[in-house]
Amino acid sequence: MATLSISRRIRKTPFTSRVEALGVKAYTVYNNMLLATEFRSFEADYWHLCQHVQVWDVSVERQVQIKGPDAFRLVQLMTPRNLSKAQDDQCFYLPLCDENGLMINDPIAIHIEQDAWWLSIADSDVQLWAKGLAVGMGLDVDVSEPDIWPIAIQGPKADELMRRVFGDIVDDIRFFRYKRLDYHGRKFVVSRSGWSKQGGFEVYVDDPVLGCQLWDELFEKGADLNVGPGCPNLIERIESGLLSFGNDMDFHHSPLQCGLRKYCHLDQDIESLSLDALRRQDRQGVPSRLMGLMAVGQNETPEDKTVYLENNKIGEVFSDCLSPRYGAYLAIAMLDSQAIEKVMMNQGQGLSINMGSQALAVKCMEIPFEFE
Ligand code: THG
Fold it and tell me: Could you tell me the CATH number of the domain that includes residue 306?
C-alpha cells in the first residue's frame, strides 16, 4: 500500500520519533494528527495490554479549552448531561449534541479551574462549533486548543508503573478524577481514565521536553514490568463496549441511539441546546440503535457489513473484530429498532451477515457485551 504524506495539516506529536523507534506498524489520522493503531499485531497488542502495561501517545485527544465567566454556561449548552454538580477534580464522559439532538462529539470534559473546562475530544471539529456558539450567543468566553499532548498509561500494571514515577499519591486518584502532580517542577494533570477497561491513567503533558523525559522514564522504570508501546486497541475496546465517534456513531445519530441515554438528563432543568429535541426523540422513539453482535466459534471477519433478519436488510456493522479471548466474532452494529424488538423476543436469535455463499448467524445483545 502507498504511504501517508505527512505535512503540517497532518501533525506529528512530540512523541512521534519515539513511537517510530518502537516499531509502529500503522497509523490513522484523528483530529488532523497521527494516531498509532498497531505495533505488534492487533492480537499481540491486545494480550500485551491485558497482561502488562502500555504507554500510548494519545496526543490526538486534543483539548478544546473553554475559559471565562460563561465557560460553564457554554459547556452545559453543548451537552444534555447535567454538569451543575461538577466537583473540582472531576472528569465527565459527555455526549455533545446539536439543537437537533444529534451527536457532535463524545469527549471527556475536565473541570480544570473555577472558570475553565477542557473538552478532551474525539475526532471532529469541536473548537469551531464552540466558537460559533460563543459568538452567536454573545458569551464571555475564550475558546482555544492549547498545546497539550496526553500520554495514556494502560494495563493491569499501570498503577505500579505510575507509583514508581509519581509516587504513592497516584493511589489517591479515583476513577474519572484527576490531580495535578509535580513532574520536575511542573504540574501535570493526571487522571484515572483512558480508552481501555484494563485500568490506567492519562497524563496531560503541556511541555514537550518534559513530556519526552516522562515518556523515557516510563520505559526505564517499567522495564521489569514488561512495559511496551501501545495504542487504543480495536479488540479490547469492542470487548469493553467503548464507542468510537466517527465509527460507531457520527453527526447523523443521537445519543439515545448509541446507548448514551444515561448521560442525557432529560427530566432535569438544564440549559442545553439539545434538550427539547432529545425529549421529543425520547417520546417518539428512535428509528435505530447500536447493538452488539456475537458469533462464537467464528474465526473470520465478514467483508459485507450488512445485517439481515430473514431476507431483509435491517442494519449495518460499524465496527468489528475477532476476540481471541472468547473465540468469537464481535460487532457493533446500528440496527432497526423494530427488528431489534423482534429479535430480542427471540433471545437475540435470527440475525445474519452474508459471507459469500454462507450466512453467518449472529446473536444480538445490548452493549456492553456480556460474556458467559
Ligand atoms: N481519554 C481522553 N480523551 C478522549 C478519550 C479518552 N477523547 C477521545 C475519546 N477517548 C472520547 N471517547 C470516550 C469514550 C468512552 C470513554 C472515554 C472517552 C470511557 N467510558 C467509560 C465507559 O463507557 O464505561 C466510562 C464512562 C463514565 O463512567 O463516565 O472511558 O479515552 N482524555
Answer: 2.40.30.110
